[in-house]
Design a protein that fits this description.
Layout (H helix, E strand, L loop, with lengths): L30 E4 L5 H9 L3 E2 L8 E3 L4 E4 L8 H8 L4 E4 L3 H10 L12 H12 L3 E8 L2 E11 L2 E9 L4 H15 L4 E5 L3 H5 L3 E3 L1 H10 L6
Helix pairs in contact: 3-4
């Protein structure tokens, strides 16, 4: 039986290396594979194949690809009237990649309804900080009164941005950060934001469900790979 967290015997893959996950024709549910580690090459290989790590603190690494998938396209991004007012009034100061660690730790610490604990473990934090250092992971921060009020982070590959998590310590802070990051990404040619698992909150921001097969085609269309 695999132990919790990364497998110490699994080889470390740097950001230039590739790992082939099981063929999508073999996928029967959302869980694609179990085990491995969170080295840059393995994480980036997963995103290129429409897969991401999502597991509990007592679990080995679980690699998932939900069906259906939730995505937001540039013409569907929805900014409500109340959020437009928040932006006009400059309620938050928005920055990008200014405090990546603060954002991912904020995501790990926030108490979420119907969740016991967090999947953003110290192993996850270390791994995504490394992806950020290497230029693949990015964050948006919403500041208020000089304090980090909320934010979001994810991974940019090709013309696809794979959103990972968001948090808010003050009302609407995560929305302000996410909408700002998504608009900036779209303005620079990103074709879609992957929101992973559908939810009412994401749908309200413009997210839509699509079958996993279509999502995998989307990755090829927008060249979601490193080279």
């Amino acid at each position: 039986m695999l132990k919790p967290g990364p497998d110490p015997d699994f080889p470390y893959l740097d950001s230039t290396m590739h790992f082939q996950f099981p063929d999508p024709k073999e996928w029967k549910d959302d869980i694609i594979s179990v085990g491995g580690n969170l080295s840059p090459g393995l994480l980036l290989s997963a995103y290129e194949q429409g897969i991401f790590p999502w597991f509990g603190p007592e679990d080995p690494i679980v690699w998932q690809s939900p069906d259906p998938r939730c995505v937001i396209f540039p013409d569907k991004l929805h900014v409500s009237d109340s959020m437009k007012k928040i932006f006009r009034n400059e309620v938050f100061k928005i920055t990008f990649d200014e405090d990546f660690e603060g954002v991912i730790r904020g995501c790990s610490e926030i108490v979420r309804r119907n969740q016991n604990g967090t999947w953003i473990t110290e192993d996850i934090i270390f791994a995504y900080k490394e992806l950020h250092r290497l230029g693949w992971a990015h964050s948006a921060e919403a500041w208020q009164d000089g304090e980090l009020a909320g934010g979001c982070y994810g991974v940019l590959l090709g013309r696809g941005f794979c959103g990972e998590s968001m948090f808010a310590k003050r009302k609407n802070a995560s929305k302000a950060a996410f909408l700002s990051l998504a608009k900036t990404m779209f303005d620079h040619g990103v074709g879609f934001v992957d929101c992973q698992v559908p939810s009412k909150h994401l749908i309200s921001l413009g997210g839509e469900e699509m079958p996993r097969k279509e999502f995998l085609r989307l990755l090829r269309l927008f060249r979601v790979f490193r080279y």
